[in-house]
Amino acid sequence: MPLAKGLSTVLLSHPCPHCGHTHTKKGSYYQTIAHYWCTSCHRDVRMTYDLKLRLFDSNAHRAI
Length: 64
Known about the structure:
By secondary structure, this protein is an alpha+beta fold. It has one domain. It has 2 helices and 4 strands. The strands form 2 sheets. It has a two-stranded antiparallel sheet. Strands 3-4 form a two-stranded antiparallel ribbon.
């Protein structure tokens, strides 16, 4: 299942699983990354394809 291209310019938020801090970036950012660094707890957050699918699916109503 591909990630929705209509969300590439939409701001999406993902909570850090370690501290809950919200990481907000454009959909195109989430499409290309495998992990990111939480600016709050300074831990590496892994973004699996399954997590990306859930993030994009939960925001599908916002697609342009």
